[in-house]
């Protein structure tokens, strides 16, 4: 049975309430390792690579480049065997 681990928009700083999704670093359906950077987001000041919360197969959600998402929004999932 496959377990799904949600990939959520992180709270990068104490003041962060939303971020701009920039791009995926890993294609949909590709294997990822825990802590591997999988996507890039931007705040008003910096861009950050965000690491995978688990090892498994990355399944992209509905995140679109240049769209703003609140912290905690689920934008993808990782299927863990």
From TrEMBL:
Cofactor(s) the protein requires to work: (R)-lipoate
Methyltransferase listed as a keyword: no
Residue stretches making up the Lipoyl-binding domain: 4-79
Keywords for this protein: Acyltransferase, Transferase
Domain of life: Bacteria
Gene3D superfamilies reported for this sequence: 2.40.50.100
Name of the protein: Lipoyl-binding domain-containing protein
Organism: Cryptosporangium minutisporangium
């Amino acid at each position: 049975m496959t377990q799904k681990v949600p990939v959520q928009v992180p709270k990068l700083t104490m003041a962060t309430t939303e971020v701009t999704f920039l791009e995926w670093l890993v294609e949909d359906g590709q294997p990822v390792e825990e802590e591997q950077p999988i996507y890039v987001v931007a705040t008003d000041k910096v861009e950050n690579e965000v690491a995978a919360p688990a090892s498994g197969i990355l399944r992209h959600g509905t995140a679109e480049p240049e769209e703003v998402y609140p912290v905690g929004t689920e934008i993808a999932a990782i299927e863990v065997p």
